[in-house]
Amino acid sequence: MFFVAGICTLLQVFLGVRLPILQGGTFSFVAPSLAMLSLPAWKCPEWTLNASQVNTSSPEFTEEWQKRIRELQGAIMVASCVQMLVGFSGLIGFLMRYIGPLTIAPTISLVALPLFESAGNDAGIHWGISALTIFLIVLFSQYLKNVVVPVPVYGRGKCHVSKFNLFQVFPVLLALCISWLFCFVLTVTNTLPKSPMAYGYMARTDTKGSVLSQAPWFRFPYPGQWGLPTISLAGVFGIIAGVISSMVESVGDYHACARLVGAPPPPKHAINRGIGIEGLGCLLAGAWGTGNGTTSYSENVGALGITRVGSRIVIVTAGCVLLLMGMFGKIGAAFATIPTPVIGGMFIVMFGVISAVGISNLQYVDMNSSRNLFVFGFSIYCGLVIPNWVSENPEKLQTGVLQLDQVIQVLLTTGMFVGGFLGFVLDNTIPGTLEERGLLAWSQIQEDSEETLKAAKVYGFPWGIGTKFCTSSWTRALPFWPKLDQHGDEAGVSQLTLCPQTSSGKHLWSVTETKM
């Protein structure tokens, strides 16, 4: 999974949406995967359920789990082709003309809000450690963000001291390392309990020691390592439901990431390309046999909001690190030993930032309108209520068609899909003016993002592709190809019209043109 996540991250940064978003395993595929494996044909035999009586290295046991992962591989690879079709055909970009702030806001917010139970459970393992992690992140990212630290730097043949905003750049990493070290000290001194049943045991750093000792030093993963994938209709339909949820989440992540890093909203061609590349990532994940797909990481978007470091170089470095972690097992196993309450404390801060970013999209909407209050309030509340009820009462939604049951189960237990879908339907059916709905300002931003030089620099292809190279007229007709400035030439020269504002806020359209 680490290895494929590294490949997909590099593909997304260079050829996809080009925003600094990490790619990794998606929770959207977990529910349909479990539903598929609960079918009578794929239930585990009774003799495999007692771990003390099973030789895990025997050929019989190996074949039992490998044939199941081959089935999962085939379903993921077929479903990923649907995602690539939706992205590269421009269908997702076409739908964006009907998607406004009242759809994006509940979708992004519900990426994080339903995870409060997971974050609370992780943090509740030891609230003291979690509170320390939260305190350090808040201290570094908010109170000490403008404090400069003298750092020795070597350059121009000599060593000198340079000022560096250490706490603003690395608040999460510093907080994680300090809390991790603190847990290690408490473990060595046996301050934390040794009994697995005692409160705070999972805060010890030696609870996952076997992971580190059993991990191989080096192993190169390759496609088809579990054999030839198999395909079943039930598995494909279930995974397609997960793909739909993943796409909805990713579109929200793109807008949230762009807003946090100060980039223009992603234009249609960038969204088309990003979703298409994510589909390609799922295809690679299926071929490599990870047992999962890949998607944009909402947690990474939350980290951007805290660190305020939106750099492609950082994400490229992270992708290379993931590749190394996938090949050097000891490195990945070391990160797996991070105590759970430390992760829980980080989640509480990051998910809070993501929720706030989603709500911030309402700045374009007239929130004095009872119509808009109803659409947003109803959508986000149903996005919390319906998935919770469906999760607790899965037997109430049995239609008799297993494939249909799986699709319904996955979609209705995904809060971001429920809230985003209701927001989309209500916003496009309840009467309201374009200005009231925020679509006037939203469409203006989208049009500007298609034309501005900054958007061309952020979302255009690297290495001059589309400007100096591959500039054929037929490529520009592709729905995922960057649109060149009509005033610029193929060498990348654009004309930028300067539009200063008067004191009343109106634009003075100047005829001054600056060659860029």
Automatic annotation (TrEMBL):
PROSITE patterns cross-referenced by the UniProt entry: XANTH_URACIL_PERMASE
Highest taxon of source: Eukaryota
Keyword 4Fe-4S: no
The keyword Ribosomal protein belongs to this UniProt entry's keyword annotation: no
Transmembrane spans: 75-95, 125-144, 165-188, 226-244, 313-336, 342-361, 373-390, 410-430
Membrane topology: Multi-pass membrane protein
Localization of this protein: Membrane
Residues annotated as signal peptide: 1-16
Keywords annotated in UniProt: Membrane, Signal, Transmembrane, Transmembrane helix, Transport
Record family assignment: Belongs to the nucleobase:cation symporter-2 (NCS2) (TC 2.A.40) family.
PANTHER family: XANTHINE-URACIL / VITAMIN C PERMEASE FAMILY MEMBER
Protein name, as recorded: Solute carrier family 23 member 1-like
